[in-house]
Design a protein that fits this description.
Elements: H1 3-15, H2 18-25, H3 29-43, E1 48-50, E2 53-55, H4 57-85, E3 90-95, H5 102-115, E4 119-124, H6 127-135, E5 141-148, E6 165-176, E7 188-189, E8 197-200, H7 210-215, E9 222-226, H8 232-240, E10 246-249, E11 260-266, E12 270-276, H9 283-292, E13 304-305
Parallel strand pairs: 3-4, 3-5, 7-11, 8-9
Antiparallel strand pairs: 1-2, 5-12, 6-10, 6-11, 6-12, 6-13
Helix pairs in contact: 1-2, 1-3, 1-4, 2-3, 5-9
Length: 307
């Protein structure tokens, strides 16, 4: 299948409109219609309902694969360009908000200076964007985080074809204000919180829906507020303001008097940080991964060494 046709198909389904897809892609509406017809002719099945615009059953099945296919093509192109381009003296790191610890940022800066990188860029991005950036060559290294059972790795990001290298782990706590009725508890079970109000902040912490995938039989959590930003401080201010509960690594509450963290014991979860990179990257990336994964002695609220 021609990736250009797949990209056009994806745009039509995403926008629910031929004209909007044409505007995004810089094509005429007629060209978009012709490309969809060509793809349908190649596969021998109708993929798009015209009125209203939407996927047929076959189109929905194809749509499940399109993002992954296009990502892998872009990743292959990026890998070839890396071989062609050689060392550039630039280092670009993508990092999830809660993976941006002082320890990690200090190491990134030190390794970049040691390697003579004259241009260091650090971008704060959501987890999927970090993974896609690494896979497509826009990022040299990614640091992603999420919840996992103590001995489990993070679930790999969708479609990126990357596996993470463990960097560190930290106990997970339920974050709530001191005046909350549960603030006196020494530990909490997720089952105790089925009627609680939660803040879902997928751009900062792992999405609450991920708990179902991690522990399998977790109860449904009632979302009272959804925060769509990527700023840790805004998220914790919402928690401190009593807008809902949240799950955070223990270190995220260090120094805060307006929030308490109650250990979550059932299920026992870890907040894990992993490094993502492609094979055959520049030596500075391998040096950076090695430095990030060196065991460290936990001091106070510092993160625990990897496992």
């Amino acid at each position: 299948m021609d990736p250009r046709l797949l990209k056009t198909f994806s745009a039509v389904i995403t926008h629910g409109s031929f004209s909007d897809a044409a505007r995004e892609l810089g094509y005429t509406q007629s060209a978009v219609s012709q490309q969809i017809a060509s793809l349908e002719g190649e596969l021998g099945v109708e993929l798009v309902c015209r009125r209203p615009v939407g996927p047929t059953e076959a189109g929905a099945r194809l749509m499940d694969h399109v993002a992954s296919i296009l990502l892998r093509i872009n990743a292959a192109r990026a890998e070839v360009q890396r071989v062609k381009g050689g060392t550039t003296g630039r280092l670009t790191v993508g990092i999830c908000p809660l993976a941006a610890t002082a320890h990690a940022l200090r190491i990134i800066g030190e390794v970049a200076r040691r390697a003579g990188a004259h241009e260091l860029t650090v971008r704060t991005l959501p987890r999927q964007a970090v993974a896609e950036g690494v896979a497509t060559g826009k990022l040299d290294l990614g640091l992603v985080d999420g919840f996992a059972l103590p001995e489990d790795p993070l679930r790999p990001p969708r479609g990126a074809g990357l596996r993470g290298v463990p960097v560190c782990r930290e106990p997970v706590v339920v974050a709530l204000p001191p005046h909350h009725p549960l603030a006196h508890r020494t530990d909490l079970r997720l089952a105790d919180l089925i009627d609680a109000r939660w803040i879902d902040a997928p751009g900062v912490s792992a999405p609450l829906a991920d708990l179902c995938a991690v522990v399998g039989d977790s109860p449904h959590l009632r979302v009272a507020l959804r925060y769509d930003g990527h700023d840790v401080r805004t998220y914790t201010e919402l928690l401190a303001g009593g807008q809902g509960l949240g799950l955070l690594p223990r270190f995220a509450l260090a120094g805060r008097q307006d929030l308490v963290g109650i250990p979550l014991t059932q299920p026992e979860l870890s907040h894990r940080v992993e490094a993502l990179r492609v094979t055959g990257g520049p030596p500075v990336v391998e040096d950076l991964v090695a430095s990030l994964t060196e065991p460290v002695e936990p001091v106070g609220t510092e993160i625990q060494p990897r496992s």
